[in-house]
């Protein structure tokens, strides 16, 4: 990853962030997380418009956690998610 921001600027950004109350920092974190989720979900939908809502959720999960699990575990979890979400849809 390229980062051409000078260290002094990064330090100032961290100072500004850490000067805020914890509640505001957490709200900002949640907003950024939700924004990134929406962006990734949109990219998935553009690349694979035929996916169902359940399949999009599974692909989103795989995208977020692809570095946290090996492929076998990731696919096992995704398959369990698929079954769970299908059951939830049925009521």
Structure in a nutshell:
The protein contains 4 helices and no strands. With 91 residues, it is mainly alpha-helical.
Characterization of the model:
The chain has 91 residues and is mostly helical. The chain is 79% helix and 0% strand. The protein has one domain (7-90). The chain has 4 helices and no strands. The longest helix has 26 residues, at 22-47. Helix 2 crosses helix 3. The mean pLDDT is 93.
Main attributes of the structure:
91 residues, mainly alpha, 4 helices
Strand runs, count: 0
Number of domains as seen in the coordinates? 1
User: What is the helix/strand order?
Assistant: HHHH
- Form type: elongated
Average pLDDT, all residues: 93
Count helical runs: 4
Assembly form of the protein: single chain
Strand content: under 5%
Question: From the helix content, strand content and strand pairing, which structural class follows?
Answer: mainly alpha
The biggest sheet, with number of strands, parallel, antiparallel or mixed sense and barrel status, is: none
**How helix-rich are the residues, as a percent range?**
over 70%
List segments where confidence is low: pLDDT < 50 over at least 5 consecutive residues: none
Rounded radius of gyration (Å): 18 Å
The N- and C-terminal alpha carbons lie at a distance of 44 Å
Describe the secondary structure blueprint for this structure.
Layout: H1 7-19, H2 22-47, H3 53-65, H4 71-90
